[in-house]
Amino acid sequence: MITFQLNGAPVQIAHEGKTLLQVLRDDLHLSGAKLGCGEGECGACTVMVDGRPVCSCLVATQTLQGATVTTIESLAPTPDGSEICSALARTGGVQCGFCTPGIVMAWAGRHPDDTPDDALEGNLCRCTGYVKIRAALEQAPCLPQHRGTVSGKADLSLQDGLARLAQNPQLVPIAGGTDLVVRAGHDLGAHQLLSLERLDAPELHQVFWEDGNLVIGALMRWQDILHDPVIARFVPILRDVAHGVGSPQVRNAATIGGNVATASPAGDSLPALVALQARVRLIHHDGSREMPVAAFITGAGRTQRRAGELIAGFVIPAKCLGQPQAFTKVGPRRAQAISKLSLATVRVPDDPAGISFAFGAVGPVPMTCPKAHASLASGARDKAHLNAVTALAMSEITPIDDMRSTAAYRRRVAGNLLIRHCRVLFSPAAGRGDG
Question: For site-directed labelling of 198, which of 204, 206, 245, 373 has its Cα 20 to 30 A away?
């Protein structure tokens, strides 16, 4: 049985491999959250878990043990919920009403720094557009309370969790589950899941210093990475990556460790971590080990994680911290889009080429283009030299034609991005730290 708080009351449900949305609508007959896209795109299913707006269609019930869930049925009668609903009614921000509960939940649980546009990023409305909705939210400026990143779910020691993984090779670690639930078609009955939220291991949720290096815990959620001041100062490239990772609802669930573990060729964090020369830290009940992220990713959906191992975090070397960094993601829109391609570049003072770079979505793994990198180490870095370097890089990447783009388009844009990044990072302003 799974026990959690729902709208202020304890609830017990049987483990049947369902999503939270399925339980709310089918078992508990709470119809405020709606099934729209089923992939975290529309926001119609938004509820709050531990005070954070998330897509309930992507929440596996196994991750809810000890959680606190709030739905529109409970929020609407409160002062904050009533104020938001009244503002939407006054401004004409409601027509069919299908999207309205999700919008109310998203705004009520938004990050304090979010503007209406930020908060609405994960909510689609096909009737009113957004002018009246935005006007309504601006009239309801109730700020949410500060929420921590770790809830009362932690009822399992890290060692016990690792022992369970070692004893049962079929056990699948799950954090946010935003990718796993979609790949499973919202039917998780065939999966044995271990919720990583149950682990009593605060370091997995934190950014901390270790011997001059920066360590980012694998369970850091992308919404926290987006707003973390240490990351903004020392590894802003990861903040830039976070901007494009889904909606606020997805970022409130998805973790950096999960993004790497999925090992999608289009995963936005992969080229950034490779360019940062980061190392992945893996833990097992018998010990731990580290390796470069570049070596950890072995193919599309494949890594060097062994049975019983868990990604604990990522170690960013001191030499890359605070250096000029750039990340560009090319997609059909600014957010909630899978990359057509991406490029991450970091100034590295002791690197012969002066920079470290990696492309995403133009090969099965982040592409570092060794020949182009070696060529960059020798030359004047003028227009002719950069064009020659780019030509080498284009011979090393292996883009494909798919539903998102053509190989020819990816190759052409990748070359333009590499020249642009080199010019920016090799500029005198970047060298002085002005850019």
Answer: 245
